[in-house]
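Notes from the 1:1 (GR / supervisor)

We went over the backlog. Supervisor wanted to see one worked example end to end before approving the batch request, so GR pasted a single chain during the call. The sequence is below; no edits were made to it. Supervisor asked that the structure be written out right there so they could see what the output format looks like.
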Amino acid sequence: MNMKHLTSTHSILLGYLVLALFLGSCRKAADAIITEPDNPKPKILSFSINPPTPTDPFTFSFKAAASNYQDVLWSFGDGGTSYELSPAHTFLTTGTFKVNLTAHNKLGYWAEQEGQITIRPQDIINFTSELQADGSFKLQAAMPVEIQSFSWYNGSTATDPPISTTASATIPMLGATSNFANVTLKIKTPKGAEATYTKIVTNAGVLNDVTANGVIVTVSDENPSGPYSSEGSLKLVDGDINTKFLLGPGWTNKFWAQQKTKNPAVVNAYTLVSGNDSKDRDPKDWNLQGSLDGTTWVTLDTRSNITSDLRKETKVYLFDNSVAYSYYRMNITAIRNGSWVQMSEWRLMSTAKP
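Structure output shown during the call:
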């Protein structure tokens, strides 16, 4: 055997092996160098919605801070968007809007945060009434909002031709068979935002809806399907005359419904809307009480033998009261007939300034 040749062959093979290991280690080192590490994930550090000014209640400003992001996107819930980190946005209608902020990086990661804005027409529109010598009422817009145009309407809709397009309007005296009138005011701001709201005008003045500011409703006897059901107690204050609260059979003359106001409020009027079907289910006799603590009650108003054959009819009841109570309770002591009781709406009202 030629040992010298064998040794040379082994040396060559060993050289190839060392070279392969060297090239492999170099490739791994090169790969480690050229591999780009993941960027840190985006993070929203702060998120705030600043309230609007009284003169422009539709325009909100938004402020945010974020880290490790390439771009941001605001969605305002009305179809509007912005790529600014801290933008301003004008909503063109009233309503509830879900606001979303998303921060992205170039690798496709994102972070988001949500908020909600509610713009209520009753927080924007206000007007007063003044009884004139001829029995008519002069209505006057009373709000700090910058307004481009006014439109006043008789009734609870803004569809007929307006009775006035200035800051004031006049309505005739109230009829002998009705102690109130519905008047609707529609406004438009210089930025194009619109709001429409209906208020009740009485001989005592314009009524402000206390119930609309937030109440907790309780009843002595609940609909068997619960307060959230289609005919549960929450239908008493849902603002829809096409829904109703229904209880029966087995109604007794000890039934009461109660509203706890968000803040103590002077109530000197209320409205009742009759149900959609059997008139025998309508309350006929009742009293309204007020309480500071929910325990001691003061009777504020008493009615008896109240009847009407009209369905979904709104009636307004005025009484004297100057005390801001936290609890108001309606005790129904009689219905027209049978053992079922129903009401479409029951709303607390006040002639005091909102």
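Supervisor's comment: Residues 3-34 form the longest helix (32 residues).
Batch request approved.
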